[in-house]
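Open question from group meeting: does this chain pack into something compact, or does most of it stay loose? Before anyone orders reagents, we agreed to write out a predicted structure and look at it together. Recording both the input and the output here so the notebook holds the full record.
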Amino acid sequence: MRQGMGWKIALAFFAVYVCWGMTYLAMRVAVVSIPPHLLSGTRFVVAGLLLYGWIRAKGEPAPSARQWRAATIIGGFLLLGGNASVAWAEQRVPSGLAAVLIAVAPIWMVGLEWAKGGSRPTKHVVAGLLLGLAGIALLVSSRAETDSRVDPFGAMILVLASASWAWGSVLSKTAELPKSPFLVTSMEMICGGMLLLLTAGVAGQFHEFEPRRVSLEAGLSWGYLVVFGSLVGFSAYIWLLGVTSIAKAGTYAYVNPIVAVFLGWAILGEAVTSRMLMAAGVILVGVALVNVDW
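Structure tokens returned:
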């Protein structure tokens, strides 16, 4: 490891572990007042333009048309298919459980990277995949002790969102993009954010949005998502994809559910039952089996 890189990597992992873990709560609060695709689109466009202006002012050359095209494709998978789908699903699924379902993203990453020509998964990786799927089945099919059932459609969207995010992450490793990770981050946020706003327009979310009805909590949550979820967390993740393996970068999914479940329980009063914890444990063990070096 190059001198001086250790603390930067540790700080980046802290950002994706803790800052991203808190975004599930922030999205859960904000989506009550702001439609999901409008919420995600505005946060990423604002953050992307701020970061793009800063990095270009520092002398970074303008991206080529091919690089903008690659950023649009990857941004679509990461933000439209991934992040915004989480925001939508949190209208139907508690934030803590959403984070647990998203925790299967590293499993998708391993499978998709193999499909793209990477190394074949080993036996312990296959065991991890099966455990992860078993955990999802347990979580979705179980009834909580409060007799509330996990919404199956919301859960399915979350699983597909993790797949979309994983595919965008795999593509970003080899796509034709600028060398600067911050320029890449800004481009993907701008392009993905514009796709989100286009989707919000088609879905009529601009029409149904009433700014005067946005609560103080929702406004503060939106601000948190812009600064810590996008500028800090997303930038850290894209940077980690460039300096570590995709499996290591994906370990954010180990810690995010713990942070999200705790905050959902402590602040929103979301139920945490023994069966939910069991399902979460099975999922996380499966994810760990996929990524631990043997």
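Observations to bring back to the group:
Residues 143-147 have pLDDT under 50 and may be disordered.
The longest helix spans residues 216-243.
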